[in-house]
Design the sequence.
């Protein structure tokens, strides 16, 4: 047990530091500090020794040099269990520093500001802080390094129970967090600087890409039982992302549960009306919106009841008791919503194995999407494009009615979340048939029609979205035969004239978006 007799405190984020320092002082800990932190302590009656007084060397170069001194780093790095270290420190009049409490200049917050200059960013690169953090973490056998204000209470509780000491297990935990903290800090600096071009222009992607993820849980296995897996959360987790979930009941989440749950959640939260999305094997098999959540679920389920068996169901509203009772009648793996009513929670409790997740709504997206390939990583910005009526180009003799335009935009929104090649039949704010993941677009068209037929749904007068252009007219022929009367697609094929002519021949209205939504 390392007894804390002397602590160096120098923090940019002063959250909770006064209370922490007061408690340390009550333990008889001598406190060293710098600049603004020392001033704060003096103003609040906490005994403190300025680092410049301790080192007998003034802060200089606008504060760039203040803790870079042998009396500081010798006190942090010296090993108490090596006689030669102890003798050298005595000879140089270097005292032990048993605890270092440091968090760093707000570099990420600075560069997040609009119009942040390179000069301002550079001045917010901490030098002394990371040096002290790494030194203390390296010598964790003898020094407690504190970088996270949320650890203050943990440390004080341990010091109370051990008469002023911090145990080896806690010191190792703190050292792990410290090295992760400086790695994240340096990674942010590298990302920022290597995204500046040779003439000062901002690049979309840095030359060196750094990302920090924190393990939330080990999983039973990966996609298959012979694969190992874990779930990690991004340190820059956007608001409303799946990784912020709270599981209120049910079995452990599996690798596939999480992947499918993300697909369902990302889709459902794009709708403003009460919506339900049912996903199976990463593809929506039913999507609907309505004035009532129960009706949204019933419409979504009716799209493909067979595929919905054992699926993931996501809602963008609080689940009420009536909706819960309808959902729980079917076999479901995961249910996701921004909140669960008390009545719904009681209904779900009757099926204790069903996984129920609460995720706060939010419209933020991950800044990048990743796809691992052999020996590398593909990185892209997210597909966050949503179209409005005025962005559509009507290319057929027949023009869509206002209702058809509503159905087309609904179908287009769903198609963005369906694996390519994607064909989505819709009408009256619900999906009727979805064809996904086929090697040819005409096969996806046929499968979508078959799905609707199997569910007993009529496609007469339906709207269809295609995530990419039709390479031949055969896809339009299939859609027309199934009963569709309007189509939305990107356009851009060398046979666009042939495709449009086929639509005119069948009396179908067609609009082009100019954008595709491939999803692999």
Sequence:
């Amino acid at each position: 047990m390392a007894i804390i007799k002397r602590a160096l405190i120098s923090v940019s984020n002063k959250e909770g530091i006064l209370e922490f320092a007061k408690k340390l002082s009550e333990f008889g800990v001598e406190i060293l500090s710098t600049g603004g932190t020392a001033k704060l302590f003096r103003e609040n009656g906490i005994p403190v020794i300025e680092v410049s007084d301790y080192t007998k060397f003034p802060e200089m170069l606008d504060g760039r040099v203040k803790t870079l001194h042998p009396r500081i780093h010798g006190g942090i790095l010296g090993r108490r269990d090596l006689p030669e270290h102890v003798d050298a420190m005595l000879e140089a009049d270097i005292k032990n520093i048993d605890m270092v409490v440091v968090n760093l200049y707000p570099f990420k917050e600075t560069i997040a500001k609009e119009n942040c200059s390179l000069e301002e960013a550079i001045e917010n690169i901490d030098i002394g802080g990371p040096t002290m953090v790494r030194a203390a973490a390296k010598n964790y056998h003898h020094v407690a390094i504190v970088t996270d204000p949320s650890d203050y209470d943990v440390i004080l509780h341990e010091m109370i129970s051990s008469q002023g000491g911090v145990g080896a297990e806690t010191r190792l935990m703190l050292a792990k967090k410290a090295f992760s903290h400086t790695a994240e800090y340096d990674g942010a600096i590298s990302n920022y600087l290597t995204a500046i071009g040779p003439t000062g222009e901002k690049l979309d992607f840095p030359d060196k890409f750094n990302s920090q993820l924190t393990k939330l849980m080990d999983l039973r296995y990966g996609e298959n039982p012979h694969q190992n897996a874990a779930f990690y959360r991004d340190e820059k987790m956007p608001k409303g992302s799946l990784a912020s979930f709270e599981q209120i009941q049910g079995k452990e989440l599996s690798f596939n549960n999480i992947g499918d749950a993300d697909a369902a959640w990302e889709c459902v939260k794009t709708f403003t009306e009460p919506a339900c999305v049912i996903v199976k094997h990463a593809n929506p098999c039913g999507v609907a919106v309505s004035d009532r959540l129960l009706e949204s679920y019933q419409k979504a389920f009716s799209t493909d009841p067979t595929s919905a068996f054992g699926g993931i169901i996501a809602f963008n509203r609080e689940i009420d008791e009536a909706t819960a009772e309808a959902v729980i009648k079917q076999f479901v793996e995961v249910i996701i919503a921004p909140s669960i009513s008390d009545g719904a929670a009681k209904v779900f409790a009757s099926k204790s194995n069903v996984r129920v997740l609460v995720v706060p709504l939010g419209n933020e997206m991950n800044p990048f999407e990743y796809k691992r390939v052999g020996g590398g990583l593909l990185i892209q910005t997210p597909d966050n494009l949503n179209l409005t009526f005025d962005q559509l180009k009507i290319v057929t003799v027949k023009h869509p009615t206002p209702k058809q335009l509503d159905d087309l935009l609904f179908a287009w929104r769903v198609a963005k979340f369906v694996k390519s090649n994607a064909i989505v039949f819709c009408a009256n704010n619900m999906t009727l048939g979805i064809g996904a993941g086929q090697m040819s677009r005409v096969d996806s068209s046929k499968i979508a029609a078959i799905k609707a037929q199997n569910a007993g749904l009529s496609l007469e007068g339906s709207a269809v979205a295609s995530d990419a252009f039709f390479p031949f007219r055969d896809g339009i022929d299939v859609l027309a035969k199934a009963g569709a009367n309007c189509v939305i697609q990107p356009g851009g094929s060398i046979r666009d004239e042939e495709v449009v002519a086929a639509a005119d021949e069948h009396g179908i209205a067609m609009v082009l978006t100019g954008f595709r939504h491939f999803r692999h």
